[in-house]
Amino acid sequence: MGDKSFNFCKVVSQELDLEKLRRKFLLALLELQNVERGSIWVKAGKGYTCVEAAGSQSEQIIGLTLPPGRPSIVAWVIENGKMTIAEPGKDSRHFKEAEAAIDIKSRLILCFPLLLRTGEVYGAVEIIETSAGGSRINLDEGFLESLQQLIDIGSIALGNSLTYSAQVKENIKLRQTLENFRSEPIIGKSAAFQSALKMAKEYAATDFPVLITGESGTGKELIAKEIHRLSGRANMPFLIQNCSCIPDTLLESELFGYQKGAFTGAFKSKVGLFEAADGGTVFLDEIGDMPAQLQARILRVVQESEIKPLGETRTKKVDVRIISATNRDLPAEIAAGRFREDLFYRLNVLPLQVPALRNRPEDIPPLLEHFLARESLRPGVERKQISREALEFLVEYSWPGNVRELENFIKHILVITRDRRITCADLGCHFPGAAATLVEARAPENSVKEIGTDIPPAKNRAGDAVPAGGQPGGASFFEGYTWEQLEHDYVLYLLEKNKWHITRAAKEAGVNRSTFDSRMKKLDIVK
After folding, report:
1. For residue 15, pLDDT beyond 90
2. 117-121, 170-174, 255-259, 466-470: range with highest mean pLDDT
């Protein structure tokens, strides 16, 4: 047993990954006893769950939980902390239902307790003989004592790895909890937004997948966080992955993880997002941009709650709720062959539409107040007020970039405005064209108020005449325009100026490309 003992100790001392260690530990024990079947069990609540198994039809055993109060060899060993030898056909402790789906039954079972350094029993390992008469298994007393010593060494290594794995998950949970404390409050009292919030609260009571749709910048991520916060998973991780911002191969490894040596540069194993979020929620943002080859793998997660890291041969069970979001028209993407129809129906169990900011103008003043207060807390940024007329303009503006554009506007305007009051003249530095100067020209001299006091809701001015001259920036050029017509011509002007290079046009407009592209579609602008 000398060389085999040395090899056994080498196996359990060099592996850090918990699942790999369990597998190698079990296989090494089976090799020492010259048998093919075995299993590892750990305490799970009041019962005992199989976390590893080897041999024919072992997949029937992995994940099985022995109910509390029912006699079983595993339960006896864990409760008594002693090794036992059992003959299944004659031993009343044998839980025969565990082998109901297995063709070849156990003939002889050796079961050893698994101990922590403290001496506490946390599980058991079974070594099983399936040949008639148990002729291969070694029951020599000295051999079994040596085997028990090796198992004690291995069980401590397993216990340490189990503790480390639990600490990693706890750290993820703690980081996520802190992140949730830092998350943005949800602001919006409009009927449209409150309807979306009410739906989110109802969805939180279930574990079904949620598909959040809406334009870029509407707050889909905030809604996803709110669903998680109100759910039974609130104390577990909430992890986010944007599906459009990283290359396909990197996205796959981020979601599913990989084993050491799976590809060039994989110097150590990496836990994927689904595994790290076990028990919690995964938010897949911009799911409509996910590559086709990955969509099938996501479908497997939704259907079977299974993942397979890159380089791994076996699947792992995960318990995660999937919330996804997109600003794309997924039915149109399906028709174009860019998105899987079966995945769409799996993700769209609970649909939720977040309204655009232009459809809830009454939410603009409190949002402005919130961002003003938040940004003024930063070093070197002074708290400022917005005049009534400037507020009216901001409420009437269509905000193609939605809440994200409004937030960036506040950051910009606080830096460029020298006075404590933000007037319509100041808006001209942020919004292109001469529209802002119109409102300033009409503004009474003493109409400056701070947002959040007694400013009444703004009235709709769409279609009002604007001052002019014959060129852009002059009055006659804008006369008779609605805001949408004005925006249409401005977008077209930027595209023609930049030779229809959308990225450059978006940069000049001060918005991201996806927002600019979304406005082009909304305004029905095509080359």
Report:
1. no
2. 255-259
DSSP 8-state secondary structure symbol assigned to residue 338:
S
Coil, strand or helix at 27: helix
Q: Given pLDDT bands bounded at 50, 70 and 90, which one contains residue 134?
A: low
CA angle at 372 for the pair 200 and 355, rounded to the nearest 5°:
30
Q: Which residue has the tokens 């056909």?
A: 89
Q: Is the Cβ–Cβ distance between 110 and 134 less than 8 Å? A: no
Q: Helix, strand, or coil here: 258?
A: strand
Are the C-beta atoms of residues 481 and 398 closer than 8 Å to each other? no
Q: How far is it, in rounded angstroms, from Cα 342 to Cα 299?
A: 8
C-alpha span between 204 and 231 (Å, rounded): 5
Tell me how far apart the alpha carbons of residues 71 and 64 are, in angstroms, rounded to a whole number.
Answer: 15
Cα separation, 433 vs 467, in Å, equals 11
Q: Which residue spans of the chain are classified as CATH 3.40.50.300?
A: 205-354
According to CATH, the topology of domain 482-527 is: Arc Repressor Mutant, subunit A (1.10.10)
At the topology level, CATH places domain 359-466 in: Helicase, Ruva Protein; domain 3 (1.10.8)
Secondary element (H or E) of residue 253: helix 248-256
What fold does the segment set 205-354 form as a domain? Rossmann fold (3.40.50)
CATH superfamily entry for domain 2-164: GAF domain (3.30.450.40)
Residue 98's nearest CA partner among 60, 59, 57 is 60
